[in-house]
Amino acid sequence: MDTNTEISAHILVPKHRKLSIEETNVLLEKLNISVNQLPRILQSDPAIRHLNAEPGEVICIERDSPTAGKANYYRVVING
Fold first, then answer.
1. Quick check: is 24 in a domain?
2. What is the pLDDT of residues 19-63, one digit of tens each?
3. How would residue 6 be classed by pLDDT, with cut points 50, 70 and 90?
4. Which residues are within 8 A (CB) of 23 and not within 5 positions of it... i.e. 6 or more apart?
5. Number of domains in the chain
6. Disulfide-capable partner of 62 in 15, 43, 78, 80 (CB 3.0 to 4.6 Å)?
7. What is the pLDDT, as a whole number, of residue 3?
8. CB neighbours of 24 closer than 8 A, spacing ≥ 6?
9. Residue 53 falls within a domain, yes or no?
């Protein structure tokens, strides 16, 4: 694969975006959880490398769903 090719532009890679602090706080309050209870994603993951996410930040992954149309999944960034 060409190193200049943007992985996030690939058709099979769902949309990833970094949540703001306010969005993260609203999400955690809505779900009644702490950030440590979210599934993890490595900071070095190719799908989020372009976001320059720091450990502790939350990523929203928008996936296609056969029943709901779109479904959001959330991951906390960890070192790696």
1. yes
2. 999 999 999 999 999 999 999 999 999 999 999 999 999 999 999
3. confident
4. 58, 60
5. 1
6. 15
7. 47
8. 35, 57, 58
9. yes
